[in-house]
Amino acid sequence: MYLFQVLSAVEYEDDCLAVLCLTSLYVLISLPFTCGYMVINIATGYLYGLVKGVLITLVAATTGIAIAHQIIKKCFAKQLKRQASSDFVAQIKVYTASSIQFTQ
Questions:
Q1: Cβ contacts of residue 47 below 8 Å, gap of 6+?
Q2: What is the total count of domains within the chain?
Q3: CB-side exposure of 47: number of CA atoms within 13 Å?
Q4: What CA–CA distances, in Å, run from 11 to 4, 7, 45, 67, 77?
Q5: Cα–Cα–Cα angle for 44, 70, 60, nearest 5°?
Q6: Within-domain flag for 102
Q7: Nearest CA to 10 among 44, 42, 41?
Q8: Does 14 map to a domain?
Q9: Span 60-103, pLDDT tens digits
Q10: Backbone angles phi, psi at 92, to 5 degrees
Q11: Please, where are the H alpha helices in 1-104?
């Protein structure tokens, strides 16, 4: 619901503000437990056309994913280190060293 309102408002703004809004949306949908890439991709293409829409999507999605990655890395690094016990690492080593391998 709010996504439609934001995209409708972005349609009438200047390009710099629109890219900033779209980057913010990509940050939000790049965080865990969210979805919506296709909606924003299609909306950007609709608003700006094929060439400009692809360029804006490329910049906004890359920036959004990079920012979301840094947020997740800072917030969840300690939790992941606690969960990655020595038993888990040992299981991964046994699995990767096993004789069963994927073949083409």
A1: 7, 10, 11, 18, 53
A2: 1
A3: 24
A4: 11, 6, 11, 24, 38
A5: 15
A6: no
A7: 44
A8: yes
A9: 888 888 888 898 888 887 777 776 666 677 777 777 776 565 55
A10: -65, -40
A11: 2-10, 15-30, 37-48, 50-83, 86-97
